Amino acid sequence: MKKSLQIGGAYVGIIVGAGFASGQEIVLYFTSYGFKGIYGALLAMIGFSIVGMCVAQVSSRLHTTSHKDLIYQISGNFVGFLLDLILSLFLFGVAVIMFAGAGATFQQMFGLPIWLGSICMVILTVATVMLDVKNIINIIALATPYLLTIVSIIAIYAIATMDLTFVEQAVIAQQAQISGNSWWVTALLYMSFNVGVSFSLLTVMCGSIRNDKVAGMGGIIGGILLGALILLINFSLLAKMNIIVGLDIPMLALANEIHPIVGLLMTFSLLGMIYNTAVGMLYSFMVRFIKPNRGSFRVAVIIIGGLGFLASLVGFTTLVAKLYAVMGYVGLILIIFIISAWFKSGTKKIVYYKKGN
Asked: Can you tell me where the transmembrane regions are (predicted)?
């Protein structure tokens, strides 16, 4: 059970980046739909749990060491090549965005130069990526209970002090809606996009787990925790929609409204989530090309980290951010192949056991 909780915590830690923890993504994909956003959050929870379980168990059964091992097996050479290329670019791109996000957070909260915050995050990320995968899982998983605690405090405060009823707040929320998609389409795209974010590290983490039931339970636990976080943040923002409309970091605004200390704790939480995502993305990117036990791995990590820092300074993040829209649909393709592979690998495992008996 301990290993499953670690996998579940790491699953959450990979996905919950700056956009999620700040509340920006939740407003866009859920809160802006009013009460239907709650249904969307529940749908996303179910999706995260099912797909997380499938990725974890298939990776465990196939003993994967990078996303390449799994992608080519489940989708064939041609489609596998395209998915591998897009995922690899996406991993590096998201890491760069996290470096830039750390710089922006440092500047906004502490008045420090953007480059200083970015380089601090790069150094911390590079140092962590040089550890073995078990240590990385433990580090990423640690931030999840901390974030759950902070978000729960903000949710209780927001609901207890709301000025309008939920019905009135829902009307304001729907007026701020940008997407023209239905609530369920948006929820599915959000889930599939984040499957793309977490897919690579999940395959690495769970490929080293020899018990596929333990790995699968980790995926389910992570999905439930993600859904719980979405619901908590969604209720917090919906309760204060008349105040947070148009704000860049709505959860930080609510935290500061409680007390500056809570705001500071939320800032550390944001930085922790940025760090988690940066580590997950950079590690997954590196093991796609170089095995971590090779002598050249550490040198390559330092070089790629340096390139990521430079990219974060020259506005590369704007270019890479365009991949986010593409990844929602790429994630849907991945999900179809993953679920199909889960059924196939499960059947083969049953046949194998029958022959063994």
From this structure: 7-31, 37-58, 78-100, 112-133, 140-162, 182-202, 214-238, 258-285, 297-317, 323-343
